[in-house]
Records
---
Amino acid sequence: MTHVVSDSCIRCKYTDCVDVCPVDCFREGPNMLVIDPDECIDCAVCIPECPVNAIYAEEDLPAEQMAFIKLNADLAKLSNWKSITKRKPPLADADDWKDKTDKLSELQR
């Protein structure tokens, strides 16, 4: 099993999680992060670090978020989604988006 970043991360991109990841499995896109399932060791240290509760163990992912398993895997392979290993400031309007749901249409690839 691996961990998955859900739609809560879209348009927020808080990076608290990358500081604690021992294997650098996070990939950064324009307006969200994903977890590379080939790199994740299922340690779960990232879960409590996310201020918007966007990270789940795959088996705990809510039913309406299941598409994010494949989405994380696919986006992690894109050449423009680079590894991120150090915390950065969130997106400028992250606080405006952090409590919104159903943000998949806002995803920038």
Note: The chain has one domain: 3-85.
---
Amino acid sequence: MPRAVPLSLTLADLAARLGADLHGDPAASITGVAGIEEARPGHLTFVSNPRYAKLAHTTSATAVLVDPAFPTISASTLRLTNPYLAFARALAIFYEPPVYGPGVHPTASISASARIGTGAHIGAYAVISDEVTIGNDAVILPHVVLYPHVVVGNRFFAHAHAVVREYCHLGDDVLLQNGAIIGADGFGFARHFDLKHEGLAWHKIPQTGPTVLENNVEVQANACVDRATVGETRVGAGTKIDNLVQIGHGSVIGKDTLLCAQVGLAGSSTVGNNVILAGQVGVVGHSVIGDGVTVTAQSGIPGDVAPGATVSGFPAFESREWMRSVAIFKRLPAILRELRANSKDR
């Protein structure tokens, strides 16, 4: 992985940094982190999914992050309760991201009425509009646009081409990946008879309410969090929104929730805390999804979901029942033949 100055740590040092129990050579050198199939001598890798447990016996990695009960293998092991989290922390140790020092690029457009905290980095062709307020230590990369009256907290990080629309509020430590759009108009239209064209037409409803992102929210590439018709659209602290997610106007998302790739929430959806909506889940407007719900990939939510449920399918229902139903569905032709044979015997 790229680094200006290659880093080498002993296993003993790495184990201390990660809070792991070391089983192996404490003097062994670790120079990088890799997946279990690509790892080479000098690499640290991990096993958290049972599907990859066998690979731990054949990996070329010098050391493997595993849970405390994992069997002994030829490679050294660093044992701790959450190997995946430890792997993420190890990546942060060995990866050196670009550093954006304070300063304003000469091509950036910054309104005289904007208020920007200390330590800001503002890149080429960024636009900071009238009455914008930005906290300390912001990093705003090229072509980012903040519309008038946006308020942003400390340590804001916006990658190239992210856009925040007028009157939106973002808390501390918000991260916008490339092309994220915060506060675009919600999809609101009223049908009416158009005398001029002598037919039905759609009248645009003004979208007057802001989008609010609380602290430590991340919105990834080309995701859209629409503004509200009235009131606000709100995303709770710690929630992570994946690429190409669509959050409809007036929706409320709780804290520490995951919305995975291509999830779509229709307007006025309510999603609780610690919810996981897997890829391509669709939610009907005005639905309420309770705290702790998990919805598996490509499921459709036609209404409310009780807290703590795990649901699947379309329309989504309890996941274990759905899996049994799918298994039966594949057997329907054989079951039908069996029923016909039995009926003839009678």
Note: Helices lie at 11-18, 83-94, 319-330, 332-345.
---
Amino acid sequence: MHTISLGTVMAVLWMLLSGYFDPLMLGFGVISVIITLWIAHRMDVVDHEGHPIHLAVHALLVYWPWLAWQIVKSNWDIAKIILSPKLNITPHTFDTKATQSTEVGLTLYANSITLTPGSVTIDIRSAGMFEVHVLSTNAREGIETLEMDRRCSAMDAKAKAKSKAGQA
């Protein structure tokens, strides 16, 4: 299932990025996707971590629109800071808790923090603790509400339940 899903994503991405729709180029695209899938399968990298299809529906319908809105809000805050004559920045680092239980969930949360402007996940201190660098106290407050952590944990829990159901 992971291989079929990955092949579909690669084929659609190839068509969108190439812009070629004549039979010869489509044939080359199909051949390149098949060869890439074969290599990925031989390398044993097509799994629940490399291509987490168990997150797809919830992520597309609920999490990604919410994250996009958080990115827009953070961009607005950063733009106000940059355009302000005072340049009210207070760059600092702090530790925040991560409650995800899988590597995919932890990666999703760390990358989500980094995607929002004004904050970067620097390090995983220990199991469940991230070191985060922020540009302002507003960015820190946004992370300390743990709303993003809660949403990532909810998606992680759904993914974990689906993978357990699929293994049974």
Note: Residues 2-42 form one domain.
---
Amino acid sequence: MRMLSLFDMDVLLRNAGAERVGEDASRKLGDILEDRAKDVVFRAKIYARHAGRNTVTREDIMLAAQT
């Protein structure tokens, strides 16, 4: 199930300087970002559990995003 819209990906690409954006580029960026986000959340949950918490914190996310 896609969580990030093609419109949002188009806006991201254009804000990053792309003048023209193909739908396939927007779709691929969304796939990559969703995969990366799932990986970050997975790692953040591990860090929270290791700290004895059930709540994922900002710090867990930041640490997970660095790896």
Note: The two ends are 25 Å apart (CA to CA).
